[in-house]
Amino acid sequence: MSEEAAAGFTAELRRRPTRPLRGRIGAALETVLIPVAALIVSLLLFGVFVACAGVSPIAVYRYMIEGSVGSWFSVQNTLTRAAPLLLTALCTALPAQQGLLIIGGEGAFVIGALFATMTGVALPNAPSWIVEPAMAAAGIGAGGLWIGFAGALRHWRGVNETISSLLLSYIAIAVLNQLVEGVFRDPASLNKPSSPAIADAAMIGNIPGSEVHWGLVVGVVACILAYILIRHTTLGFAARIAGGNIRAARMVGLPVGKLVLLFCFLGGAAAGLAGMIEVAAVQQRASADLITGYGYTGILVSFLARHNALAIIPVAVLIGGIGASGGLLQRHLALPDAATVVLQGIIFVVILASDALYGRLPWLTGARG
Amino acid sequence: MPFQPISRRRLIGSAAAIGATAFGLRPRRGFAEEDRTVGFIYVGPHDDFGYNQAHAQGAAAVKKLAGVKVLEEENVPEDIAVVKTMQSMIEEDGAGLLFPTSFGYFDPYILREAPKSPQTRFEHCGGLWTPKDPKNIGSYFGYIFEAQHINGIVAGHASKSGKLGFVAAKPIPQVLQNINAFTLGARLINPKATTQVIFTGDWSMPVKEAEAANSMIDQGVDVVTMHVDSPKVVVQTAAKRGAMVCGYHCSQAALAPQAYLTGAEWNWVDLYPKFVTMWIKGESIPNFYRGGFKEGLIKQSPYGPKVSDAARQRADAVKAQLIAGNYLIFKGPIDDNTGKIAIAAGDALVQTNSSDTKLESMHFLVDGVLGSLPA
Asked: CA of B138, closest CA in chain A: separation in Å?
């Protein structure tokens, strides 16, 4: 394909569809109304479920609101739980722009946390403005290379990235366990094998005036940066073309392989950074407690956000809120912990099913083909 | 959970309650003023036939006390989630005494939260409280290896092959104490008895636990015991394969009435109401509390139908000595399974109610254990 033709093709892809005003407003409304409606339907279905278990749905809704947003304490609880999900969701959302399905965020999280801890432990007396960036760099680098490796296997060896990234998570967890029970174990950690702790001064602490750690700010900024990268840079545009039609992307000469490696690296870097924050803001040392499941919940968040980096923010807050209210449901209504998992499952299925509605609500968007 | 239809009255009640909330009335403060609130936090399901169920049984005993309201939350991981649960129980539900029961909750989470809530009492299972730690933390634990020693005596009598099996989570001191005490008990009866150990690597690994039990039974092991969070899978696997089993944490007899010999159980049912009563009366609960049969922190499951009279007599005799306080399990000379001296003649690891860490830092497997430890 000639350069001219390539430019024409790109321009064609770039061109905004010309639609009547009603249609454009409708399309914007659609992206808000459909998920909200799906959420309401999910909550109603969950109400039926708890009613079958002999618990009043009204009481459930009341405690869910109280536990997630009902007080300053619950708001902070929700935001704290949302913070790591913002970053681990990006691990799925970024490679998804190219049609890659990465589900290994857990591994990148664990390996990022492990290398960040090692860095922190290696610099016991350095000032925090050196230790914290060094730990962050270690987390980003380790997590990025971990998922980047899954991307490399895909690019050079044709290995399915979904399977390889999942299996890499098991390897990451095994590496963590091996090290904290072996050479990287603090001999004083008798009944709970753990690494030595990083210095108190190296901990990143909470946002002033709150109990929420700085990971929330880092996560929101990362989501915004990812959105800009995907929507407003040629790099992101190229990745989306490769995701839409890889042959066309190759035809126009896009470096598909490099894009795969880059986006996998960035996704893994986000999850690795989440791991670093988990150590530097919460756990202070590496142990089996780093296997938090945030990486797996991140997959859920990314899918619910339809891999839109900005939409990850409200979705992570939603999932954080469900987690925050789970305690009240257990304590006051004697609902088992599994109830919140059921709710997450219902929301997941209903939102995915609601995908079928996009563009099929003529009263909303006007006539569309 | 019982499935029952929701009554109209309940629905109306809830609707009224939601109305009340809308007008700023906090319904959860509605219970009687003199009620004191106690919170229990579990790392796994409260009905796991194991570690968490033993604590939940203790919580159920506390519920029977007058003027006490009990809050329970299960499946709380050892990360920020337990911090939020503790804070929520304190701030939203007014809990004054917490039992965060998983070992991993202690450091750093309880150690960090306790100074922020000086009015709250934190009682932790297994932690090693030291005098430099906050005074509103208590740590308690039972010498459950004494009951594993009794398990070993019963197993030594019951086993025909002399091959015993132990499914263990991690090679940490608390687990090694159990493996060694069990083996020493069995070898009192049969000096040639061996205990095959398989470490699964984590506290809840149902598939690996079943594989471990199966492979040991394939090799001729006829009595199995374990130290994992939920012994359910091992007990059921052993029973299905025709082997016998000694339980752990709480009684699993209901899962295998025939194959279940006996078991090492926590006695939180006695301890928790005692602690809660002391707290209500304003008495001070010890910051560091340890004990075995003598102090009533542990107990033995009733013997199953396959336990012979000779086994019962021997086991009861040793138990009586332990209760009297004149029996030491880890008394030298004891060799480890690599031929080195683990405990020299004249030396012993004594069960004492102090933060002496000699027992708590055990790192060897006694002669007769088939297995090895990481360096």
From this structure: 18
Cα B199 to chain centroid distance, Å, stands at 18
- Minimal CA separation from B84 to chain A, in Å: 6
Place of tokens 């339907």: A41
Those residues with Cβ within 8 angstroms of residue A2's Cβ, 6 or more apart along the chain or in another chain = none
Q: A233: buried, middle or exposed (CB in 10 Å: 19+, 13-18, 0-12)?
A: exposed
Cβ of B80 within 8 Å of Cβ of A80? The answer is yes
Contact between A154 and A127 (Cβ < 8 Å): no
- Would you say residue A329 has pLDDT above 50? yes
Taking the CB of residue B366, how many other CB atoms lie within 10 A of it? 21
Comparison of pLDDT for A122 and A367, the residue scoring more: A122
Contact assignment for A331 to B17 by CB distance below 8 Å: no
Nearest to B14 among A58, A66, A327 (CB): A58
Written as six digits, the tokens of A245 are: 């039609």
DSSP H helices, B166-267, are 173-189, 206-218, 232-240
Q: Find the CB nearest A56 among B1, B10, B108.
A: B10
Q: Under an 8 A CB cutoff, do B71 and A289 touch? A: no
Question: Can you tell me the distance from the alpha carbon of B78 to that of B91, in angstroms, rounded to the nearest whole number?
Answer: 20
Q: Which two tokens stand for residue A69?
A: 């947003």
Look at A293 and B88 and tell me if their CB atoms are within 8 Å.
Answer: no
Q: What span, in angstroms and rounded, lies between the C-alpha atoms of B212 and B197?
A: 9
pLDDT, greater one: A306 or A9: A306
Give rounded-to-5 percent helix, strand, coil for chain A.
75, 0, 25
d(CA A153, nearest CA chain B) in Å? 29
Report the residue from A71, A190, A331 with minimal CB separation from B73. A331
The overall average pLDDT reported for chain A is 90
**ipTM for the predicted complex:** 0.86
Please, are residues B182 and B164 in contact by the beta-carbon 8 Å criterion? yes
> How far apart are the CA of A314 and the nearest CA of chain B, in angstroms?
20
Long-range contacts made by residues A153-161, C-beta under 8 angstroms, separation at least 24? A154/A100, A154/A260, A154/A264, A155/A257, A155/A260, A155/A261, A156/A257, A161/A95, A161/A100, A161/A101, A161/A102, A161/A264
Question: Which amino acid is it at A277?
Answer: I
pLDDT classification of B351: cutoffs 50, 70, 90: confident
Q: Tell me which chain B residues have a C-beta less than 8 angstroms from the C-beta of A106.
A: none
From the list A289, A334, A368, A314, the residue with the least C-alpha distance to A35 is: A314
Interface test with B, best of A106, A331, A332, A333 (most B CBs within 10 A): A331
Name the nearest CA neighbour of B361 among B227, B179, B173, B103: B173
Of A56, A292, A331, the CB nearest to B93: A331
pLDDT beyond 70 at B187 = yes
- Which residues have CB under 8 Å from B216's CB, separation 6+? B163, B165, B167, B196, B198, B224
- In Å, how far are B62, B138, B296, B362, B364 from B129, measured between CA atoms? 24, 7, 21, 18, 24
Contact A289 B77 (CB under 8 A): yes
Contact A62 B14 (CB under 8 A): yes
Instruction: Give residue A124's identity as a one-letter amino acid code.
Output: P
Closest partner CB to A337 (pick from B74, B104, B360) = B74
Distances (CA, A) of A92 to A52, A148, A268: 35, 12, 9
Predicted TM-score (pTM) of the model is: 0.87
> Cis omega before residue B374 (within 30°)?
no
